[in-house]
Amino acid sequence: MEQLVASGNLTFLEEALGIAPDPCLIFSSQGEALCWSEQAAQLLGLGDCLRPYRFSEGLSGGVFAPPAIKARFRSARASSQRSRIQLDSRHVEVLWRVSDFRGRRLLFAYLRRLEPDFSKQRHPLFSTLTMHRILESLPVAVVTYSLEGLITYYNQAAQRLYGWDATAKVGRPSPFPVASQDLFTMLESMGSDSPPLELCCRRPGPDKEMEVRLTVSPWMNPNGYLQGYLEITEDLSQMRSQERQLEISRRALVQMQKMEAVGRLAGAMAHDFNNLLVVVRCNSELQMASNRVETELMQEILEAGARGQELTQKLLTFARSSNRAYERFPLCHKLEMFRALLARAVRSRQCKLNFVIEPGPSPILVQGDVSQLENVFMNLVMNAADASSEGQQIEFKLTRREFPGDYLCRTGRLPPGSYAQISVSDHGCGMSAEQMDHLFEPFFTTKPEGNGLGLAAAYGVIAEHGGGIEVESRIQKGTTMRVFLPALAYVPEPSDAKPVALPSQQQTRVLLIEDLEHIRKLVTRILAKQGYQVVALASAEEAERFLEEATPLNLPTLVMSDVSLPGRNGLELAREVKQRFKIPVLLTSGYTSENACQEFPFLPKPFSPQELAGAIEKLKRDPQSV
User: Fold this and answer.
1) Alpha-carbon distance 489 to 502, whole Å?
2) 447-465 residue pLDDT tens
3) Rounded CA gap, 369 and 450, in Å?
4) Three-state secondary structure of 49-71
5) Torsion over CA of 185, 187, 189 and 195, rounded to 10 degrees?
6) Coil, helix or strand for 385?
7) pTM for the predicted model, two decimal places
8) Rg of the chain over CA atoms, in angstroms?
9) What secondary structure does DSSP assign to 509-555, as a single string?
10) Rounded to an integer, what distance in angstroms lies between the CA atom of residue 494 and that of residue 511?
């Protein structure tokens, strides 16, 4: 170093560095900092002095320390090298190059800043070209306000959301109450380290009022001083619409799963219906050929009809599309009624069903939608049958389960309490842990021809009922699915209820509208035997003419109509009869009509003479009964 100073070479280097376009430092092979340019001194915070010649060991993490410089000197002999260093919050790129200078080899370090120094800019951050492009491309509305509450900027998303022109609102107060000076004052008192304020409210849009989510925060300049406020607005109207569409799609998926299951059961059920028809037809022909009434034959006909009615009602209940209709019911009783349909579903897959209901001190009461829960149980049983080989057994078991504390299952935590546990177990192919992790995701399936929607729908139904699902499975060992439903406290019904005496049928005139002749004759015969005066018609149009021409003496006491009629349907007729003539109406149908059940008393087909008489008498006592 002393030789360079004595020879004047160091002075020459310093003059050369003074006109260098980039910050530069020069090091000797011993790691000494010989000199540096003024730009390098400002960048590194060294000041204007050129002494001492050695940097401290801790400067920039030792990058410029003598040992590091010696290592860099040796590695940079062959070619130039680049590296990056960080000085506080600044990033700098260093180009290292070894050159000969008047018989000596020196290491030159050229520095280049990798990011601009925003502290020297006089414009707000969003006024730079890059930030402006970023803000204009955002899908959410961004609005900035001055300290006085005046709008200083808004992006294109804000223009579309509020219907503003490009710059019409700049320099004006906010048109929304939420951007008032009171809110800005509260934000200012919070400080720059406080989290943004988030709130949901309604704001006027270009066409209609909309629901939005606001995020309001102080707008600080690069020096840390408050210069205004930033407001980000998200339109929730589209999200709410998507949620509604998702709910509609979910219901459609559930209905599709029901109909898929019904289609798979059609073959097995056709076999059962044919067996029932054999009993009905053969016994009826034998009865007609006999000269006397054969009680045994008639009993078999009645039993076959009852079994057919039960099977049909279960199928219709399972397949119908409905909104959630929650009711309290004993689960064991409903499952016993559903047992035959489950057995037929398993039998269609050449498997066997082991149906077990563990006895308890009291019935297990639950509250829910019977149709939706039956769909879940059918789906679990069909999945078990698909995973099993021919002849294997599937166990369907109901028992009570007590949770003393929170219980964690697939649908989340279940609070402590009493639950109905429905288990479906098979001995089939089983699943891996990875498959179980995705089991309840929509469109995930382990079946070659499955659509992956059944268990996703089941997950949603059980979660809506406040229950949970858990799964146990091992490859080639089988799978067990457990469904938990909250159990209600059982309150026994009083046993001292007395039968209510039925009013007399005399002077009760019934207007019957039924398009099928054999049913019309049958109902007329049943009501006539019980003392009612019956007028039977085949269409809604005939009934309207009869009512308009009727006198007070022959005006019917009540109307009984089928829902499905040619031309105008029975529900429309019932509404007109109720509004114009103030006559109570009893509707009937072979397929449950939800609107009819909600608006009018309803009697499903097929019905027995006792059920028909009971419905008529109930309607006489209470015209609004359902």
Assistant:
1) 34
2) 766 656 678 778 888 888 8
3) 26
4) CCCCCCCCCCHHHHCCCHHHHHH
5) 170
6) helix
7) 0.40
8) 42
9) EEEEE-SSHHHHHHHHHHHHHTT-EEEEESSHHHHHHHHHH--TTT-
10) 38
